[in-house]
Write a structure and sequence with these properties.
alpha/beta; TIM Barrel; eight-stranded parallel β-barrel; 9 helices; 8 strands; globular
């Protein structure tokens, strides 16, 4: 199945990226369920420290959970974990596997996202089969310390240069999200704004409402 552009655009609205740094007394599964209840439109599982078998076991459970809520779930970087867990796709960075190679392994039935920091990277990713782009960093962020923030104009230029949806990422919060209005992004990817929140469901609901306001502005 080739993903419908309208579906992909909707999925970008509030794109939740996991980080187990803030699980505390909860499990990552419980946190993801709270963000789904709050209205997240896509979940990316990002795990840097888990062994492969443990990652796949966790991913299988979270993928099934997302599907119960009618939401896609993608894996950060790990194509093999995507194939083994039944995830809906993979998101890769510029230093990871190239989009065309990912497509060759996954086939047409999986979603492929690529991080892009320039018009050239965006156009190359689209040409090689990406379904969407992660554009950033919008602001400096503790999650990606090496990502230099893009200007408002650079974000506009990247979005205008491709026909696939773009999701903005990097230091986006409730109080600065409206700065992205008019750039052409289809939504926002949030890490700490969701997973570091004391009440994840409420925080996600507020972010979802603001994201809807932002894309319609």
């Amino acid at each position: 199945m080739k993903f419908d552009r309208e579906q992909v655009t909707h999925a970008m609205l509030l794109y939740a990226v996991t980080d187990r740094a803030w699980t505390g007394d909860s499990t990552l599964y419980q946190q993801v369920e709270q963000c789904l209840k709050g209205g997240a439109t896509l979940v990316q599982i990002r795990e840097k420290g888990l062994a492969h078998e443990a990652f796949v076991a966790e991913a299988k459970e979270i993928v099934q959970l997302c599907h119960r809520y009618g939401v896609w779930c993608v894996i950060n970087d790990d194509v093999q974990a995507c194939l083994e867990s039944g995830a809906d796709g993979v998101h890769v960075g510029q230093d990871d596997m190239e989009a065309g190679d990912v497509r060759a392994l996954l086939g047409e039935g999986k979603l492929i996202g690529v991080s892009a920091h320039s018009v050239a990277e965006a156009q190359a990713a689209q040409q090689r089969g990406a379904d969407y782009l992660g554009v950033g960093a919008v602001h400096s962020t503790g999650t990606k310390t090496d990502a230099a923030p893009l200007t408002h104009q650079e974000i506009c230029d990247i979005c205008a240069s491709v026909s696939i949806p773009c999701v903005a990422i990097g230091g986006i919060k409730l109080d600065n999200m409206m700065e992205l209005a008019g750039t052409g992004v289809a939504g926002v990817a949030i890490v700490s704004g969701i997973f570091a929140a004391k009440d994840i469901q409420s925080a996600t609901a507020a972010l979802r409402a603001r994201a809807e306001e932002m894309v319609q502005a």
